[in-house]
Design goal:
Structural class: alpha/beta
Helix content: 25-40%
Strand content: 5-15%
Organism: Xylanibacillus composti
Number of helices: 7
Family: Belongs to the short-chain dehydrogenases/reductases (SDR) family.
CATH superfamily: NAD(P)-binding Rossmann-like Domain
Keywords: Oxidoreductase
Oligomer: single chain
Number of domains: 1
GO molecular function, one term: oxidoreductase activity
Protein name: Beta-ketoacyl-ACP reductase
Length: 266
């Protein structure tokens, strides 16, 4: 699979997911518009990698909740790397928030960062793609669009909103030759701390709730993004791809694939 000379807009290039995605897509020949809150300082090795691959990247730092700012950045960057062909929305802010005590500011911060930004970027990039009658929109979301975290209902609500945005956009933008799909990413290393909860045991011994006991990585995610960005996925539209190693189908403590101290297994 390759996406040679395709321009990819990544909304959070500084994150671990963003860096893995840029690296893998650069290997396949992509060019980039990279939104970086560090103005590229925290991703210099990734920018060097893009250059080594003979490609180009424009680094921007814009408010993704302002359509005019996003549209202007995409328009200005097109002179250097071309008009956007692929949008990868990977914003993923998580803050603890209980239904009983979450303040409005926290709720809106999470919703804006994860969901409103998805809408704004979809509108800005979608308009460009519609003019070309082609394009790919990929939302990197979470299994918590379907399963409560037990630690942040605001996070789950934001990912649920992205899930329905994806379905609606697939229906309407699909008429313009644009494919819209969502990756619902499951547990990766560190999620037991990230989603630590007083009311849910979901992330206790979570590695062993993946049937193979092998957690996913952001490199796994990047490979799937590459597939969705390429022509190999031409007949996928409106899909929710759960990438969790089977975690949500086997998360109860009973019969976990966890070794006993003497080396046996349940």
């Amino acid at each position: 699979m390759n996406i040679h000379n395709k321009t990819v807009f990544v909304t959070d290039a500084d994150s671990r997911s963003g860096q893995a995605i840029v690296q893998y897509l650069a290997d396949a020949g992509a060019r980039f518009v990279l939104n970086s809150i560090s103005d590229g300082k925290n991703i210099q090795p990734i920018l060097d990698h893009v250059k080594q691959k003979g490609s180009e990247a424009v680094v921007i730092n814009v408010d993704l909740c302002r359509r005019s700012a996003v549209a202007e950045a995409l328009q200005q960057s097109s002179a250097q790397v071309g008009t956007v062909d692929v949008l990868v929305h990977n914003n993923d802010l998580m803050k603890p928030a209980s239904v009983e005590s979450c303040d409005e500011a926290t709720f809106l911060e999470v919703l804006n960062h994860n969901a409103k930004s998805a809408l704004v970027c979809t509108q800005a990039a979608g308009e460009i793609m519609a003019a070309k009658k082609s394009g790919k929109i990929i939302y990197v979301s979470s299994i918590h669009a379907e399963k409560p975290t037990g630690s942040s209902f605001a996070y789950s609500a934001s990912k649920g909103a992205v899930k329905m945005l994806s379905h609606e956009a697939a229906l309407t933008l699909g008429r313009e030759g644009i494919q819209v799909n969502t990756i619902e990413l499951g547990p990766v290393e560190g999620d037991d701390e990230r989603f630590a909860s007083d009311v849910s045991h979901l992330y206790e011994d979570y590695q062993y709730k993946v049937p193979s006991t092998v957690l996913g990585t952001f490199e796994d995610l990047a490979n799937l993004v590459l597939f969705l960005a390429s022509d190999a996925s031409r007949y996928l539209n409106g899909a929710d791809i759960r990438m969790d190693g089977g975690f949500l189908m086997h998360y109860l403590d009973v019969k976990m694939n966890k070794p006993w101290p003497e080396g046996g297994a349940t």
